[in-house]
Amino acid sequence: MGELYLIRHAQASFGAEDYDKLSELGHEQSVALGNALSQHGVMPEAWVMGDMRRHRETLEGIAQGMGISNLAPLIHNGLNEFDFTGLLNARYRGQAAPDNMHSDRKTHFRILRETVLAWQRNEIEDPPETWGGFVGRIEAARQFIVSQGVETILAVSSGGAIGQMVAATLQTPAEQQIKLQLQIKNCSVSRFIFTTSAFYLHGFNETPHITTATQRLLTYS
């Protein structure tokens, strides 16, 4: 039986011109998670990530915390986040979008939820990716991961992709995906166990690197 440790990237640079890089706290989170996984005896036989910068930087920090160097991770773009900016542009095409949706966290996440639900209902004309296409590539990534023929896999992805993999595993209605996504903490671990014919959720949104003394490492964006 195999086990997948599916990790959301560490804190990226919310509100910055280039979101797709870790903040200073994000780098600290990823190293701390690597330390915690090592202490729990986790030793991945395969490493997988999407092709986003924040995925790579998170994976490198985890490896550093585990004392591992010279990684050659497998890359599958099915683990990438959906294009929220592109979805917003499609949703607000021809009209003004809220000015503070990328600077105010409360506004950002409210609009994110509304936009994803509209996307799932096919109410956004000409999105950068259809909802069905997104669901399909997450499933392709899952199949790629479990086909590696090893017992322990560590993969780094993003909140939307992880929320969908969990939702699909639990066979929930589509709208549960965004509810799951909005709960997922930076650098949290969702665990799955699998065989050649089955795939089960074994743990969701775990943060083994966060203790009472390190609460400042707890972030959602």
Summed up:
By secondary structure, this protein is α/β, with parallel strands linked by helices. The chain has helices at residues 24-39, 53-65, 84-91, 105-120, 131-146, 159-170, 176-181; strands at 2-8, 46-49, 74-75, 152-157, 189-194, 199-206.
Main CATH class of the largest domain: Alpha Beta
Q: Report how far the terminal alpha carbons are from each other.
A: 33 Å
Q: In one word, what is the shape? A: globular
Instruction: Kindly report the CATH topology of the largest domain.
Output: Rossmann fold
Whole-number tally of structural domains:
2
Output the structural class.
alpha/beta
Q: What's the overall average pLDDT, rounded? A: 93
Describe this structure in words.
Helices cover 39% and strands 15% of the residues. The protein is α/β, with parallel strands linked by helices. It has two domains: 169 residues, Rossmann fold, CATH 3.40.50.1240; 46 residues, no CATH class. A six-stranded mixed beta sheet has the order 3-2-4-1-5-6. A hairpin with a 4-residue loop joins strand 5 and strand 6. Helix 1 packs across helix 2 and helix 3 crosses helix 4. The chain starts with a strand and ends in a 15-residue tail after the last strand. The mean pLDDT is 93.
